[in-house]
Amino acid sequence: MTPVELSRTVLHAVRRAVDEGELRVSVPERAVVTVPGPGGCGDYATNIALQLAGAAGQPPLRVAEILRSRLVDEPSVSDVVVTGPGFLNLSLQGAASAGIVDEILRRGLRYGHADAAGGSVVRLRCAADVRAVVVADSVARVLRSQGDSVRITCDGRPAPEWGSLLGVDLEDSGAPPGPTGLPGLPGAPGQGGLPDVPDLPHLDVTVRPVPASGDPLPLGRDAARWALLHPAGHDRPHITGDHLVQRESNPLFRVRYAHARTRALLHNAADLGFQSEPGPVHDSDATALVAALGDHPRVLAAAASHRTPDRLARHLVSVADATLPLLPAVLPLGEEKPSAAHRARLALAEAAGTVLAGGLSLLGIDAPHHL
């Protein structure tokens, strides 16, 4: 069960309580589920009872108990505990984590992507500034992952090296390249890569991040793109050599290192004669990782909706930081034989590496198998 599916489950419990007359509220469109905070427990937590208490005219703890009695009957939920002023803490059946892993391995790098095109037709406009161009390029990649059709236009002439050195592709499908190797001026809808589909919403979006304080080109493609994309758009990025160091203090290194470790584990497991197989993982280190992996589709949708690739970058850091503690327990130790638990941990590690590689690709950054 992914966080999106769990959100639907929580809303279903609210709807049942309303239909049965125990709550008199409007059912919200979404229930936020997150990793439990301090004092919480289980796999996920939601503040839906606190959110509804005012409209229901009942104390949050009473609303929480009403919802708890319905959530414990859900087949994918093993336990529900009310903590604090009315937080619902949900523990999932072991098969729930296996379902997330199985979905990731089945969809591969497209996990979290829309199943088909048909979203919006988006024209992105940016200044001829290196950060604006890189952010627009990544926003376009994320939007396309959610089924949108996108074309980027630049107010000015982009520098040729932004394409050759930073991998910026302002040329949408069918858009003719300009004299710099990047696209020319925008054409009318239906030309230059934007389909003329009257039934779809057409959006004009301007990308205006705070410019970088220095020239990112000396950092090389991957570190330069990370330096420009990781900070929020309203923050000024710092262009320093810290983005190149291979140590724990460098978030980009942690993300790529975690990915490389997962690929190395797959190779080592093959040498030991076993492969990954999704299954329940009961290790305490796995809880935060499963939650982060399940949250990936929501993060991609939010990054697309708000045109914020920095959300994706920070999410990848969270996935990497949740992945690394699990990895020492993936392979058998000494004379230990590979077991179902090892195969399940290996599948979870493989899924984490897949999410990291897919997210980095949307940021235009490579995910090497070796560092």
Tell me the layout of helices and strands.
Layout: H1 3-19, E1 33-34, E2 44-46, H2 48-56, H3 60-71, E3 77-83, E4 87-92, H4 94-107, E5 121-127, H5 130-145, E6 149-155, H6 160-164, E7 202-207, H7 221-229, H8 251-272, H9 286-294, H10 296-306, H11 309-323, H12 340-362
Parallel strand pairs: 5-6, 5-7
Antiparallel strand pairs: 1-2, 2-4, 3-4
Helix pairs in contact: 1-3, 2-3, 4-12, 5-10, 8-11, 8-12, 9-11, 9-12, 10-11, 11-12
Description:
- It contains 12 helices and 7 strands.
- With 371 residues, it is α/β, with parallel strands linked by helices.
- The strands form 2 sheets. It has a 4-stranded antiparallel beta sheet.
- Helix 9 (286-294) runs antiparallel to helix 11.
- The chain is globular and about 65 Å long.
- The two termini are 33 Å apart.
Oligomerization: single chain
Gap between N and C termini? 33 Å
Global outline = globular
Q: Biggest sheet: strands side by side, in what order?
A: 1-2-4-3
Tell me about the biggest sheet?
Answer: 4 strands, antiparallel
Order of helices and strands: HEEHHEEHEHEHEHHHHHH
Q: If helices are DSSP runs of H or I spanning 4 or more residues, what is the number of helices?
A: 12
List the uncertain runs: 172-193
Helical content stands at 40-55%
**Strand runs, count:** 7
**Average pLDDT score:** 87
- The radius of gyration computed from the alpha-carbon positions, rounded to a whole number of angstroms, is 23 Å
How large a portion of the residues is in β-strands, by DSSP E? 5-15%
